[in-house]
Design a protein that fits this description.
- With 315 residues, the protein is an alpha+beta fold.
- The chain has a single domain (2-314), classed as 4-Layer Sandwich (Deoxyribonuclease I, Chain A).
- It is built from five helices and 19 strands.
- The protein has helices at 34-51, 64-76, 147-164, 182-185, 200-204; strands spanning 2-11, 55-61, 83-86, 95-100, 104-110, 121-128, 131-139, 170-175, 224-226, 239-241, 244-246, 249-254, 263-265, 271-272, 279-280, 283-284, 289-290, 296-297, 308-314.
- Strands 1, 2, 3, 4, 13, 14 and 19 form a seven-stranded mixed sheet that branches.
Length: 315
C-alpha cells in the first residue's frame, strides 16, 4: 500500500468566494480562467498519476469543487480515487484534503484553534482487513510565522494521538513547514526561534531521538519516527528555497508501524517524487505566475513542492 503527500500549490476553483488570493480571483486580468485552471489540474494530475499512490493527502486545495475537479481529471487519465474528503469546516483560504482507493471508517476535523491563522487537521481512519490505520493530514503555519505557531498544531496532534492510544497504527503526514531537523536549522533565526530552541516536529512529537534507518531504530510507544531518516541525506528534500534543499513535507509514523506485525512500514521505501520534468535548471518547476502587478498566470508549471511517498505492508 503506497501512501503519498503532496502540496499542490494553490489549487483554486473558478468560483468567487471572497477568500481568494488576489491573483486567484477568477476572470480578472490575472488570467485565472478556465484555460489556466484546466492546465493546472492537468499538470497536478500528471504528477499524482506518476506517484500512483493508493492514498494521497493534499495541501493547498481551496474547496470541495477544486478537489472534485482534480479527482475527475485523474479519472480521465485512468486513475480513480473512489473516496475523498476535504477539511472545509473552517473557511481558511486553502485547506487539506485526501483522495483514496481505500474506504475509510470515518473522517473528522481537528480544530487546532478557532483562529483562521491555523488550518484544521484532517483525521481519517482507513478501513483495512483486520487492521486499523489512522491518518492525520497536516498543513502547519508557514515560515512567515514563528515556531510557537507550529507548536500549537503539534500539541493538538499529540493530544489527539494520545487519546487514541500509544499502541495504535498512526501516520502523521503533510506539509509541516518544518525540516526533519528543524531544531538545528532554526536555532539562529530569531523570527522563528521564539521558543527557546523547542520545535513542534522534533520536541513535541518526539522525533528527535530517532536518527537512524528504520531497521536500526527502536521507537518508544507514544513517540514518532520521521521516515526521512530511512533514506540517504542527499534524498531528504521536497522543497528548494533560494537554492537550499529542505524537507518541509514529512511522513511520521507511530512505533507500532515499525514492528513488522499486522501492518508495517516497508523499510527503505520513503522517497520524494522527482522526475526530470519537475525541475527547471536547479529549481522545482513550480506553477508560473509573472511577478509584476497584476500578477499573471502563464499556464505552465506544477507546484513548488515535490510529492513524498512511502509504502506499507499488510501482513
Amino acid at each position: 500500500m503506497k501512501i503519498a503527500t503532496y502540496n499542490v500549490e494553490n489549487l483554486f476553483d473558478l468560483q468567487k468566494s471572497g477568500h481568494e488570493y488576489m491573483e486567484y480571483i477568477p476572470y480578472t486580468p490575472s488570467m485565472w480562467n478556465k484555460v489556466n485552471y484546466h492546465k493546472k489540474l492537468k499538470n497536478i494530475a500528471q504528477v499524482i498519476q506518476g506517484m500512483n499512490a493508493d492514498v494521497i493527502v493534499l495541501q493547498e486545495i481551496e474547496s470541495l469543487q477544486s478537489l472534485k475537479d482534480l479527482r475527475y481529471t485523474l479519472k480521465q487519465i485512468g486513475l480513480y480515487y473512489q473516496y475523498y474528503k476535504i477539511a472545509d469546516k473552517k473557511n481558511t483560504t486553502i485547506k487539506v484534503a485526501l483522495l483514496s482507493k481505500i474506504p475509510f471508517i470515518y473522517s473528522k476535523e481537528l480544530q487546532v484553534t478557532s483562529s483562521y491563522k491555523y488550518r484544521n487537521i484532517l483525521e481519517v481512519k482507513l478501513k483495512l482487513p483486520d487492521n486499523e490505520l489512522y491518518l492525520f493530514v497536516n498543513h502547519w503555519k508557514s515560515k512567515a510565522g514563528p515556531e510557537s505557531m507550529r507548536i500549537v498544531s503539534a500539541k493538538k496532534l499529540l493530544e489527539r494521538t494520545q487519546q487514541l492510544g500509544k499502541d495504535k497504527n498512526i501516520i502523521l503526514l503533510g506539509d509541516f513547514n518544518s525540516h526533519y531537523q528543524e531544531n538545528k536549522i532554526f536555532i539562529r533565526k530569531r523570527r522563528h526561534n521564539d521558543t527557546n530552541g523547542v520545535t513542534g516536529i522534533n520536541n513535541i512529537l518526539k522525533t528527535n531521538d530517532y536518527k537512524y534507518s528504520a531497521s536500526l531504530t527502536n521507537v518508544k510507544e507514544g513517540d514518532f519516527y520521521n521516515l526521512w531518516y530511512d533514506t540517504k541525506d542527499i534524498n531528504r528534500y521536497s522543497y528548494i528555497f533560494r537554492g537550499k534543499k529542505e524537507a518541509l513535507d514529512n511522513i511520521l509514523i507511530s512505533s507500532s508501524l515499525l514492528n513488522d506485525k499486522n501492518i508495517s512500514y516497508k523499510k527503505g521505501s520513503i522517497t520524494s517524487y522527482k522526475p526530470e520534468y519537475l525541475f527547471k535548471r536547479k529549481n522545482i518547476y513550480r506553477w508560473q505566475v509573472r511577478g509584476k502587478k497584476p500578477r499573471v498566470h502563464k499556464g505552465k508549471g506544477f507546484s513548488d513542492h515535490l510529492g513524498v511517498t512511502a509504502e506499507f505492508v499488510l501482513h
